[in-house]
Amino acid sequence: MKQKIHAVIKGIGSYVPSKRVSNDDLAKLVDTSDEWIYSHTGIKNRHIAAENEATSDLAVQAAQRALEKAGCPASMVDLILVATATPDYLGFPSTACIVQDRIGAENAGAMDIVAACTGFIYGIETARVFIETGTYKHVLVIGAETLSKITDWKDRNTCVLFGDGAGAALLTACEEVSPKRGVLTSYLASYGKDAEVLLRPVGGTRVPFVPGTTPPEDMFLRMNGRKVYTFAVSVLGKTIETLLKKTGLSLQDIRYIVPHQANVRIIEACAKRLDIPLEKFFLNIEEFANTSAASIPIALTDMERQGLLHPGDLILTVGFGGGLTYGGNILYW
Ligand code: UT7
To answer: CB atoms < 10 A from the CB of 182, how many?
Structure first.
């Protein structure tokens, strides 16, 4: 029987900055309260990068932990993908190139993936295709964000929601006749029609930064929370159903659903709509808030640390975010 190449997650790791900011801390900055934030989002704390800490600094820590777990020297990595909406620099160089140099991955190509909170899911699928086609053997996928750097700390509609952090996974080629490990399939989708619902309006080529004219607050992220909420509830369900249909699996086959950690209420609404017990979803938003592209790999690392992931378990990741983008993966652990 012909052997097929599978993309197996060999090691994962995460890193969050040490500075921990509670809801009560935020209530000193804007007109909000622990009660409002927790009841509307499920968030209690978030970790915030230091002034001199950029996205690549977090990414490097997570990457080194994932490589160590995998027992893979950085020199063996063929490709580095950094999913981020908060790169060290606008446009170029990519954050992936900075990570490549810092971890000593001297034989790797490097590029960023811009799919906001769905970025890690896009990265996993990109790695799968490169590996299954035999192009690369070792692909490092990183989700890393310092959203605190593009947050308007005077806007209570957004500043209570986000946190900083990074998570990484090393995917390695593995030849087996019958796969019970690795990325089984993915679903990637987008809805660019609503691009303006969640965006950083100024500083790109559509509305460039004009020295002396651009109001500083226009450089921060802007969001229509209600619209994102409605979109999220609908596409989370659609993604789960699409992935199950594509694989012929049922919900009972899935050990855990690992959603993008944006808002517990979004997950609850999706669980209710699809009649899925909430316990099937892994949640750690209470401690880390929404870390965008980092939220799923941080969650997976947390789960591994807690002993929740066993070989052969089927894990379904699902996310949504700026773009708008959405999608998911099914992984054999
Ligand atoms: O990764 C993707 C990123 N984005 C998201 O996931 C966001 C998705 N959206 C959401 O999670 C929710 O829409 C929010 C948590 C952002 C907002 O919750 P909501 O229940 O949709 O609240 P709302 O926007 O309808 O606002 C309700 C009220 C408003 O006051 P009025 O107009 O009714 O007087 C807001 O001004 O809550 C007020 N409000 C706040 N009050 C205290 C909004 N933010 C706050 C706050 N503290 N931080």
So the answer is: 23
Confidence of residue 2 (pLDDT cuts 50, 70, 90): low
Q: Is the pLDDT of residue 94 over 90?
A: yes
Q: Which residue has the tokens 């087996």?
A: 176
Ligand 1 site-directed mutation target among 21, 30, 223, 226, most atoms within 8 Å of CB? 226
| pLDDT digits 0-9 by tens, 313-330 | 999 999 999 999 999 999
The residue contributing the CA closest to ligand 1 atom 17 is 225
**Distance between Cα 266 and ligand 1 center (Å):** 12
Tell me the two tokens of residue 105: 């991955």
Residues 6+ apart with CB under 8 A from 14: 62, 65, 165, 166, 167, 168, 294, 297, 298, 301, 302
Residue listed under structure tokens 């906001």: 116
Distance between CA atoms of residues 218 and 216, nearest Å: 5
- In contact, 308 and 300? CB cutoff 8 Å: no
Q: How far is ligand 1, taken at its centre, from the CA of residue 197, in Å?
A: 14
Nearest residue (CA) to ligand 1, atom 30: 157
Domains (range + CATH), the chain: 5-175 (3.40.47.10), 182-332 (3.40.47.10)
**What is the spatial distance between Cα 172 and Cα 72, in angstroms, rounded to a whole number?**
10
8 A C-beta contact, residue 110 and residue 78: no
pLDDT tens-digit readout, 116-126: 999 999 999 99
CA neighbor of 137 nearest in space, from 184, 62, 72, 181: 72
Q: Can you tell me the distance from the alpha carbon of 201 to that of 203, in angstroms, rounded to the nearest whole number?
A: 7
Residue nearest to atom 14 of ligand 1 (CA): 225
Neighbours of 285 (CB within 10 A): 26
Q: For residues 300 and 169, give the distance between their C-alpha atoms in angstroms, rounded to a whole number.
A: 9
Global confidence as pTM: 0.97
How far does residue 36's CA lie from ligand 1's centre (Å)?
9
Q: Between the CA atoms of 152, 156, 160 and 162, what dihedral angle is there, to the nearest 10 degrees?
A: -40
The C-alpha R_g of the chain, in whole angstroms, comes to 19
